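Weekly structure sync, notes
Attendees: PL, DS, HV (note-taker this week)

Item 1: STAS domain-containing protein
DS walked through the input record. Source organism listed as Littorina saxatilis. Sequence as pasted into the shared doc:
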Amino acid sequence: MAGDDNMNGDFKSSEGLGPHVRVNRSAYRLGTFRRLYLKPDEPPTPLLTAAKDKLGLALTCNKEKAKKTCHSVFPFMRIMRKYDVKNDLINDLIAGLTVGIMQLPQGMAYAMLADLPPVVGLYMSFFPTLIYFLFGTSKQISMGTVAVVSLMTGGIVARETEAWRMSRMTTIPTTTTAAPLMTTLATLGLDNTTAAAATAMDAEEIAYKIQIATSVAFITGLAQIGMGLCRIGFVTTYMGDSLVSGFTTGAAVHVFTSQVKYALGLKIPRYENVFQIIRTYGSIITNIPKTNIPEMVITLICIIILYIVKVQINQRIKDRCRIPIPIELIVVVTGTLASHYGNFREMWGIRTVGKIPAGLPEPSIPTFVNVSSYGFECVVVGIVAFAQSVSLAVLMAKKHHYDIDANKEMIGYGAGTLFGSFFSCYPIAASVSRSSVQDSAGGRSQLASVFSACLVLVVILFIGPLFQELPSCCLSAIIMVALRSMFLQVLQLRQLFRVSPFDCAIWVVTFLAVVILSVDLGLYIGIVFAFFTVVTRSQVASVKTMENLADNDIYKMTDVYTKTEAREGIRVITYNTPLYYANGEIFLKSVYRATGVKPEKLRKVLKRMQAKTALHSTTNLIVDESTIVELEPVPPRTSNGNYGKPANGEAAEAAPKDPRPFRHLVIDCSAMAFVDPVGIKTFRQLIEEFKGVGITVYLGGMRDEVWRTMEAADFTTKYADNIFLTVYDAVQTAENSLRSEVKVDEMFVTHM
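Item 1 (cont.): predicted structure, written out as C-alpha cells:
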C-alpha cells in the first residue's frame, strides 16, 4: 500500500527540495503486479464481424459524415470556415504579392538550374500552387521551385537528353517519334526558328527535356499521393535533421558549381554520375582563359548588390518593415533593361534567357519517355521534396500553434506536382526563403499563395516576353546568393559535435558523399550510414554501475552522481539501450567487466576452495559441472568480509574469504525499449551462469512491451521470481534475503 506519511508542504529552499515523501508498501514482483492491476484484454473481434462493421461504416452516408469527408479531402474548406476576412485578408494580400514578386526571378533561375527554359519556372509558380491551396494543411509555406529538387530533376533531364542526343546521331527521327516533340513545342509556343534564336538550343531538344521533366513530375506526384494514401509519411523520420542538413549543404555545393559556368561566361558540358564537381571544376580550370569578362563583371555586381540588400539592409529593417526590398526583381528588371538598351548579346556575347512565350501552355499528357531508366529516381525526388517541405511546414505550424497532417501534406505535394505535369512543370517543394517572407509579411493562410499565383499569371499572360533580354548570369547571381543560408549550416557542426558526435558524423559523411560522388548516391550513403550509427550506438553502450542515492528509492549511476552508497552484498547495474542480436554478446562481456565477476573463472576458484576448506569449514560447497549448491548456511560475515564462527569468545580458525564480491545482481531494465530472441537468450544465460556460482540475478523496471515479448518466449514463467516492478523492489527483496541468511547463520552458530 502506497501512502504519504509526511506531507507538510515545507520546502528546503536552500537546496531546491520539495516536500518530504515517504512510501510504505510491499515489494512487487512484476508478474504479481500485473495480475493485480493489469486491465483484462478485450476479446478479439472476429475478422468477418470487423469487416462487416467497416463496410457498414463506409457505406453509411449522412450530412455530418459528408462534411467530415469533404474537410478531410479538401483541408482548405476547414481552414476557410474559420477565416477572418476583416483581419486576415489584407495580410494575405500583402504577403501574397510580396512572395509573387520573389517567385518571378527565382522561378526563372531555378528552371534554368533544372536545365529547362525559364518560362517553366513561371508555370510552376502558378499551376501547382493553386492545387496545393486545395489539398495542403500548412498555412504559411510557399510551394514552387527550390534549388535541391531543381538540381535533382536537372540531373535526370541532362542525362536523358545526352542519351537522346547520342541516339539522334545514329538514327533519323520518324514521324512517330517527332510528333510528340512538335506537340510539346506548340504547347510552349515555340517553333524551330524562334526556339533556336531564343535559347541557342535545338527546338526538339527543348521539347524532349520538357517531356522528361513532365514525366518525372507525373511519376513523382503519383508516388507521393500513393505514399500519402498508404499513410507512410513516416518515411522521412529516417531522414533526421543531421542527414537532411548535410544533404542540402552538399547539394548547395552542386548548385553553386553548376552556376559558375554562367557566371564566367564559359560553355562547358554538364557532367553526371560520380565525381561531378571534380570534373566540372577541372573543365572550368581548363577553360578559364575563355572567360567572358563582361559576363563575369555583371555577375559580381549582381552578387554584391544582392548580398548587401538581402543580408545587410533587409535583415536590419525586418523588425520595422515586414515587406523586404524586392532586390531580386530589381536586379532582373535592371539587368533586362541594361541588356536590351546596351545590346549585351551582340556586343559582348552575353547569354540571355531567350524567348518567353506569352500565355498559358496548353495541357498535354506526359509521354513517359524511357521512364524505366529514371523511375526509381523519381521516387527519391519525391521523398526529398517531401522531407524538405514537411519539415518547414512543421516548423511553421509550431510557431503559429496549429497542427498539420504529414500524410495529407504528402498528398497535397503530390497533387500539385501531378497536376503541374500536364502543364510543363517538374516536381515542386516548399521554399525556405519564400516561406519565411510569406510568414514575416503577415501571411495567415494559403490564400496568400493564391494572390501570389495571380501575380505570376499576369506576368505569364502579358509581361513574360519582356524578360527575353535578361542575361543568364543575373539569374545565376540570384541562385548563388540564395544558397547562403544552406552554406551557413556548416557553422552548426561545432554545436552538433558537442551535442551528439554520431549526428555530426552523419552530417559529415552525407555531405562528403554528396559533394565527392553525386547527389543521389550521397543520399543513399547518408541513409545507410545513419542506420549504421543506430546499430553502433547500441553496441558502444556499456553497462553502468548504480548505487543508492541518499538512502531512498532513487538509484543513479556512480560515474555521474555523488553521495551514492552501495548496498552490502548487492550490485546494481543498468544498460541504456535495447538488448537484441547486435549487442547480446557485448552486453554479457560488459556485465562481466562492470561487476568484476566472470562466472567461469569464479567457478574454478570455488572448486579450489572446496578442496581446501573441506576439513575445517562449516559450509560445504558441492560443485558439479553445472552448478554450485550450498548445503548448509553460510556463517555470519565478519568485519573483514570473511565467513566464520566464534569459539569460546575467541576468533575461530580463519576461513578463506568468500571470492564472491556480492550475492545479488540487480539489472535496471527501464531503458531497454525492446528485446528480441537473442536478448532473451542472453538474459537466460546470464541468470544461469550467475546462479551457478551462488549469485542471484534480479531484473527491475522492465517495460510492459519487454514483458510481453518475454512472456511469449516463456521466460516469465520460469524466472517469474527474478523479475520485479522496480529496481528498488528488487533491492529490498535482495536485502531481505541477505538478512534471512544472517539470522539463519546466527541460529546455526548458537546451536553449535
